[in-house]
Amino acid sequence: MKTICVYCGSRGGKPPAYRQAAERLGAQLVQRGIGLVYGGGRSGLMGQIADCVIAGGGQVIGIIPQSLTHKEVAHAGLSELKVVGGMHERKALMEKLSDGFVAMPGGLGTLEELLEALTWAQLGFHQKPCAVLNVNGYYDRLAALLAHATSEGFVKPQHRDLLISDSDPARLLQRMQQFTPAPAR
After folding, report:
1. Is the pTM higher than 0.90?
2. Regarding predicted confidence, which is higher, 146 or 76?
3. Helix 108-123 to helix 87-97 angle, to the nearest 10 degrees?
4. Angle 16-32/169-177 helices, nearest 10 degrees?
5. Is residue 53 within 8 Å of residue 61, measured between CB atoms?
6. What is the tally of structural domains in the chain?
7. Is 182 among the domain residues?
8. Confidence check: pLDDT of 184 > 90
């Protein structure tokens, strides 16, 4: 894996553990020579992980819609900042430039991006690992929801298992590097 797309909040969340996890994930990306692809903002967890990768000498590509350059305050210190027309273009370019996807804690946008990447994997549109950095059990309820959807017959077990989850950034990246895609649909 040469690049990982990280979905995360443009806000930092309340517990300091979220910001600390962004720093640990950023440090692991740098240590492994993996570039960061992310939403291009300088605030919240987005800014935290970008700053960490930049400080370590790693490559950071931000992708931000024109309409959000002011709202999310585009990060000025990136290796590359791509300004696109809208959210659909942003997500398509993130997918194209990334070898895998990690969601850190975040809000509605983070959840939407993660579930879209996971759905694309289910449908066979890509064969890249999708993961969550499960800081403080943030994604435990999502895992429970996916287990419930599977038991109710809406999600096949092999598709539920497409989502890799770990609370440790080093283990998470290791598991992503060992990922073997399941058959589509």
Report:
1. yes
2. 146
3. 60
4. 40
5. no
6. 1
7. no
8. no
